Amino acid sequence: MAITKFETVEVNDLSFATSSYGETQTTKTLKFTSRPLISEVRASVSTSEKFRIYSDLVQMKFNYTPNTRDIVDNDNLYSITYQNVDWRIADSSISNDRMSITLICYFNKPSVDV
Q1: Radius of gyration of the chain from Cα atoms?
Q2: Residue 88 CA to chain centroid, in angstroms?
Q3: Which of 1, 77, 97, 111 is the most exposed place for a label (fewest CB within 10 A)?
Q4: Is 35 helix (H, G, I), strand (E, B) or coil?
Q5: Helix or strand holding residue 13 (H, E)
Q6: Cβ-count burial 69-95 (b if 16+ within 10 Å, e if not)
Q7: The predicted structure's pLDDT at residue 102
Q8: Which residue(s) pair with 25 in the sheet?
Q9: Using CA atoms, how far apart are residues 78 and 30, in angstroms rounded to an integer?
Q10: For residue 50, is it left (φ>0), alpha (ψ between -120 and 50) or beta?
């Protein structure tokens, strides 16, 4: 059984732009702070011929609010800062009774030479 606990997280707005050189730039702005129920933290590693790629996956359960509803509708425009790491939203869902919203978030660590 996985450990579940309430943790403080920051929900950030993301905005995307392109520099004059054609580089994509992402700007992160704090939207609000919350304490969702964190569970099912998993770490995985995949190995190719040259690199190891470490990635983590976590489930966050928020109370239903207009702010969290907007996250579900536009999950690509938000990121979550948890344990000083920027997590991106992979999947989001609303419970049937609209009491909670569940986000599956991922974090890819930099690849490491084999």
Answers
A1: 16
A2: 3
A3: 1
A4: coil
A5: strand 9-18
A6: eebbeebeebbbbbeeeebebeebeee
A7: 93
A8: 17
A9: 10
A10: alpha
**37, 66, 42, 38: which is closest to 54 by C-alpha?**
42
pLDDT of residue 113: 54
pLDDT tens string 5-24: 999 999 999 998 998 888 88
Q: What is the Cα–Cα distance from 79 to 74, expressed in whole angstroms?
A: 11
Q: Record the pTM.
A: 0.79
Instruction: Tell me phi and psi for residue 103, to 5 degrees.
Output: -115, 135
Q: Give the tokens for residue 84.
A: 């000083």
Average pLDDT across each block of 10 residues of the chain; the chain has 114 residues. List them in order: 85 90 89 92 74 79 90 91 89 86 82 52
